[in-house]
Every structure is written in structure tokens, then in C-alpha cells.
């Protein structure tokens, strides 16, 4: 692995290798990189969890983090992504972690660029590091993927998390179902009622409503969405005893999920954040090791 661009590019064996290494890091294993690598985080969209998580992971495996502020970069002057990354390569960087508004922005970096590229989210496309930390969270909980029922709920068509997880989970033997308003199903076949899904789901994976990626119908209201598609107290009571709740965050409390359930016993929402550091350590270690 020299890059991580999409879950479609990872084999099941590579997924399991990253999850194993993440577990080793969680259990106190130290980085085996032979030197300190120079990395930068190029975030052209807002981020709290992903950006900070990568920065923590980079420092934990001994990388030198070179500051990059997209709001003061030459991208504002019209510089292409290729020229930005090529410039950083010539300065001496080994890897860049990139989040961009454009789907598949990384296609222009596949030739002529010798730094490693880690996709931290491309438009409404893919979010592989989030998917891997979700897989880690699920596997840590159940010890398997085969035969589990995972229900993904919310803004499916605009969610890179939904797309990345659908690709990976199905390939690993998970029964993936989608629940959303009809106009938000996109390319996926979706349910429009909880009744067929709530009682046999092992994982309820909620998604943020992405107002910034589409025009929400004027008739849309947070109250009506919560009533029809949100995880309410009544629905949580119908879940299987060992079922868990997940959400990539940020959470719109009392919209996707009633606020009091965000930190309930079956919620893994903040555990996902913690797990993300170990998984991103494993991603970076794997990719940088491939450069040695």
C-alpha cells in the first residue's frame, strides 16, 4: 500500500491487517518505522474528529507534522491540487492526508506524484479511514463480520461514510440495509420504515444530515425527520439486547438521535472517536512502511 484512496481499492486481507495493527497499537505496541516521516494534513473542508485524529496518530508513530492551513494556501489563488501536492513533495514531504469538496479529487494525483496520499474524505464519495475505524469498532464488539445485520440510517446519497461502509461491510459478509427518506436513497435500495429493521439489527449506524451538500426541501423539519427516521427512546427499547449504536459525528442531537442516547450504554459514538486514533496509526504505519 502506497496510498489509501477508497475502500474499493482494499482487499479483505488488507482490511484485516490494518485492524490487527490497530489492535496492537491499542494494546501498547510501538511503531516500527525506521525513521521519522514528514506529513501534512490538507483539509479543504471543516473537520474536528478526522483532522485532529490524524494529527494525534501521526505524532504517536513519530512523524513530523508540517502545518498546512488551507485558508491561507495558494489554492485560494487558483493553484491546482496537483501543483499543491507536488510542491509539498519537493519541499520534502513523504505523505499528505487530504480532504476536499470534489469527488475523486485524487485522480489527478495518480501520476507524477511520489508522496503517499491518504484520502480523508472526497466530496460525497469515500471516507476510507472512517470506514476502517467503523469496522474496527464493530469487530471489537462482535469478534466477526459474517452474518451481522447493519442498518445505515439517514442521508445515504450524500454520505461518503455510507458508501465506504457499504462497500467494505458487504464484502466482509455483513447484511447491510439502508433506511432513509425516498429522495435520499441515491443509488441504493432503501427501506422507509424502521419496522422491518429495528428488532434484528446488530448495529444501528446513524448518519448526519448534510445540509451543506444538498438543498433541503422547504417542507423539511428537524422534528418530522426525528419522528420518522430518528433513533427515539421507543425505538432504542426495541433493539436487540447486545445491539450497538454508531454515528460518525458530528451529531445533530434530537434529530438523528435523541440527545440522551448519545452516551447511553449501547452507544459507541465516542468509542469510535477513540478507536479512530489507533486505526489511523495503523493506516499511516502501513503506508509509510511501504515506502521503506
TrEMBL record:
Aspartate/ornithine carbamoyltransferase carbamoyl-P binding domain boundaries: 2-139
KW Cytoplasm (keyword) present: no
EC number: 2.1.3.2
InterPro entries on file: Asp/Orn_carbamoyltranf_P-bd (IPR006132), Asp/Orn_carbamoylTrfase (IPR006130), Asp/Orn_carbamoylTrfase_sf (IPR036901), Asp_carbamoyltransf (IPR002082), Asp_carbamoyltransf_Asp/Orn-bd (IPR006131)
Pfam families, per the entry: OTCace (PF00185), OTCace_N (PF02729)
Record-level GO cellular component terms: cytosol
Segments forming domain Aspartate/ornithine carbamoyltransferase Asp/Orn-binding: 146-286
TM stretches of this protein: none
Chain sites annotated for binding carbamoyl phosphate: 49-50, 99, 127, 130, 249-250
Record keywords, A-Z: Pyrimidine biosynthesis, Transferase
UniProt GO molecular function: amino acid binding; aspartate carbamoyltransferase activity
GO biological process: 'de novo' pyrimidine nucleobase biosynthetic process; 'de novo' UMP biosynthetic process; amino acid metabolic process
Binding site for L-aspartate: 77, 160, 208
Catalytic activity line of the entry: carbamoyl phosphate + L-aspartate = N-carbamoyl-L-aspartate + phosphate + H(+)
PANTHER family in UniProt: ASPARTATE CARBAMOYLTRANSFERASE, ORNITHINE CARBAMOYLTRANSFERASE, MITOCHONDRIAL
General function of this protein: Catalyzes the condensation of carbamoyl phosphate and aspartate to form carbamoyl aspartate and inorganic phosphate, the committed step in the de novo pyrimidine nucleotide biosynthesis pathway.
Family (UniProt): Belongs to the aspartate/ornithine carbamoyltransferase superfamily. ATCase family.
Assembly and oligomerization: Heterododecamer (2C3:3R2) of six catalytic PyrB chains organized as two trimers (C3), and six regulatory PyrI chains organized as three dimers (R2).
Name of the protein this chain belongs to: Aspartate carbamoyltransferase
Upper taxonomic lineage: Bacteria, Bacillati, Bacillota, Bacilli, Bacillales
Designated gene of the protein: pyrB
